[in-house]
Amino acid sequence: MESRKLYPLLTYAGVLPFVGCALMPFVGLQELWNLGSFDYIAAAYGLAIVCFLCGAHWGTYLYRSGAAPDNLFITSNVIVVAAWFAFLMAAQAITLFVLILSFLCLLVIDYRLLKAGLLTDFYFRMRTNATIIAVVALAIIIVMVRE
């Protein structure tokens, strides 16, 4: 499959676990098999996705550091470590909030990469849409956890 068709498919498929976790309480599910509660699943998955996106920034910086507007090695490490510490030590709602902030920071960095000519408009629009979906789903989960 052509990569221009594959990466949007994978990106939008990647937000489905967030949407699924946000919907679980509405269909009467607090836990999913032995995986854990809907908020724990969302937090663990969110941490994995933050790491994945930061890894993409590492790749960009390895190959195009001269064109990058920021030191993506530093920004990605700060974001991953913050998300990881929140996952390990904070209440679930705080972890989910840190993940929301992480996704938004990563999107701002991607916007700067777009302006530097390192990302395409198509990719950035897709990332924006996926970020909006993930952030809304995580916000719903935070509300459901607090109830």
Q: In a few lines, what is going on in this structure?
A:
With about 150 residues, the chain is mostly helical. It has helices at about 5-25, 40-65, 70-90, 90-115, 120-145; strands at about 30, 35.
Question: How is this structure best described in words?
Answer:
There is one protein chain. The chain has a two-stranded antiparallel ribbon. α3 (72-89) runs antiparallel to α4. The chain is built from five helices and two strands. The protein has one domain. The mean pLDDT is 92. With 147 residues, the chain is mainly α. 79% of the residues lie in helices and 3% in strands. The protein has helices spanning 3-23, 38-64, 72-89, 92-115, 121-146, and strands at residues 31-32, 36-37.
Largest sheet report: 2 strands, antiparallel
List segments where confidence is low: pLDDT < 50 over at least 5 consecutive residues: none
Task: Report the end-to-end length measured between terminal Cα atoms.
Answer: 44 Å
What's the number of helices?
5
Total domain count = 1
Mass-distribution shape: globular
